[in-house]
Amino acid sequence: MADKKKVLFICLGNICRSPIAEAVFLKTIADNGVADKWEVDSAAIGGWHVGKNPDHRALSTMEKHNLPYDNRARQIKKTDFEHYHYIFGMDKENMSDLKRLAPGGSKAKQLMLGDFDSDAPGKIIRDPYYDEGADGFEQCYVQCVRCCAGFLAKVQKGQV
Prior knowledge:
The chain is α/β, with parallel strands linked by helices. It has helices at residues 17-31, 56-64, 80-83, 92-101, 135-156, and strands at 5-11, 38-44, 86-89, 109-112. The protein has a 4-stranded parallel sheet with strand order 2-1-3-4. Helix 4 (92-101) links the parallel strand 3 and strand 4.
């Protein structure tokens, strides 16, 4: 069997958007029968939450949608740019930070997850951290479902 494709989801602190995207993508590849062909993880731009669980609202959203999750926050490392084939940012600031952090000639394709949204390509996945309640986390989940499905479909067609 060919080497696994490797994908890393990034957000600012790795406690909201990127864990949700990671869990959604894990379900997406499982539902499509290709989970054994992928390695999936998430990480943060900053180190503020390293070692912590995701935000309780992110965990509640994942639990509501039957998405098991037990990773803890970690910060992106230089070696991630060589290990992963695809590194996804959630917004323009993430993308700017990824470009700044990437070593020259790294193999990872740096992509914005929202570019794979079937409803609104190019739309950022807004950070729900400062929202009151869980609505922003639910919106993040819904958008990640569309984006992860869109990304997988393009990979399977050889378009990315």
